[in-house]
Amino acid sequence: MIAPVALHTARWVLPVTSEPIEYGCVAVFEGSIVGVGKAHEMRQRFPSSVENRHEDAVIMPSFINAHCHLELSPLKWRITPTGSFSSWLSLMTRARENIDKDEVASSIQQAADELVRGGALIIGDVGNTMIVPSVIKGLKDGWPLRGIHFFEIINPEDSPDIVDSILSEPFLCDGDMVMMDIGISAHSAHTVGKDTLCAIKKASQESAMPFTLHIAESDEEIEFLTEGTGPMVNIMRERGRDMTKIAPPMKGPVSYLDGLGLLDRLTMLVHCVKVTEKDLDTIRDRGTSICLCMRSNTFLGVGEPPVDKMIARKINCAIGTDSLASNDRLDIFSEMSSIKRAFPHISPVALVNMATMGGAYALGLDKFFGSLENSKRTPLISISLKEQPASASELYELIALQGSKEEFDIDIIW
Ligand SMILES: [Zn+2]
Q1: Which strands, in side-by-side order, build the sheet including 63-68?
Q2: I need a labelling partner for 272 at 20 to 30 A (CA). Which of 55, 97, 287, 320 fits?
Q3: pLDDT averaged over the chain?
């Protein structure tokens, strides 16, 4: 028997790519959106539908956490901010070696629950161990999240050959719908050699997957890449890395990657705190996306990414939390508020856009997620509103500026 069309009606519907609709409706059939509009119009258009009323709420597409590391979730509260990127890196590396294996799976599930409670069901997750896919496969009640899990190459000695076979298959499907896909990523330009960076990009292109890496995150990274000196040299040596494989290019990371031909529409650069005006021009010209992880940058004391300059250039920006080793919460609401605090003139509309379509576009998933449009298959979220906005712009403010997910009751509408 074919299920009827489901009408999800609410005081507000926020499609993201078009104006909010008061007394709106999203019509869904077999997991795909088939109509977005005024509730009374949708009832007429789909007379034998089933209606789910969400009353004084706003229905919108799931938020997208474009950069996280669920496998580092056991490190929550284990590392205190030091104000120094290199100190944090040393602490994190040591703490990671001491993770109790028994708590990994449960902490990953807790982190997934936190994402769901905050309405962020689409993720760009990064890991080095494939523990997240194995946890997902072992879950009896299904996996609540969708998106991409990137197997990250992090060592200069690593070759992408080890994961070529993994790239060819999505690891979680629901019928025809790929719920979680496997990608391959590089940790950074200062930890992965030139040939391997190019090979990862090529493998990503061949499987139509995005290429992503941490870039321009700290002064220490810039010093290593541009001068071949600084604390990164000692850290890499202490970790037994083959320094001959990562000869510093003697230029900044953006011009280095651009010279290798690695910047294009399907590249997502994570952080971009230490970027120049020229770097931003290059990123804009290549159509490359940036993923902002503002609270992680604050935690590490590395400074703030120049978000105002990115927006002025119309660079696509996504939002990520990074890991619980450099953030105390996986909360897109907190990230939006942090960006707003640092750049007060950035509009709530721009922030919501980054947290939804910006992430979908950066991950190459905009065909499915990020907005309420016909044929998209995004999970919908319903956010209860304690006060009713007087206008569409007030609605955006209520969502973008509340500061944390605890301010809302969020229901997931699949
Ligand atoms: Zn990260």
Answers
A1: 63-68, 120-127, 146-153, 177-186, 172-174
A2: 97
A3: 92
Residue 131 CA to ligand 1 center (angstroms) comes to 16
Q: Which CATH number fits domain 6-61+371-413: 2.102.10.10, 1.10.1200.10, 3.40.30.10, 2.30.40.10?
A: 2.30.40.10
Whether the full predicted model's pTM is greater than 0.85, yes or no, is yes
Q: Cα of 401 to ligand 1 centre, how many Å? A: 24
Helix (H, G, I), strand (E, B) or coil at 111: helix
**pLDDT tens-place string over residues 245-304:** 788 999 999 999 999 999 999 999 999 999 999 999 999 999 999 999 999 999 999 999
Q: What is the 3-state secondary structure (H, E, C) of 70-105?
A: HHHHHHCCCCCCCCCHHHHHHHHHHHHHCCCHHHHH
CATH of the domain spanning 63-362: 3.20.20.140
Residue 32 CA to ligand 1 center (angstroms) comes to 32
Cα 260 to averaged position of ligand 1 atoms, centre (Å): 22
Distance 86 CA to ligand 1 centre (A): 15
Distance 49 CA to ligand 1 centre (A): 44
CA–CA gap between residue 258 and residue 267 (Å, rounded): 11
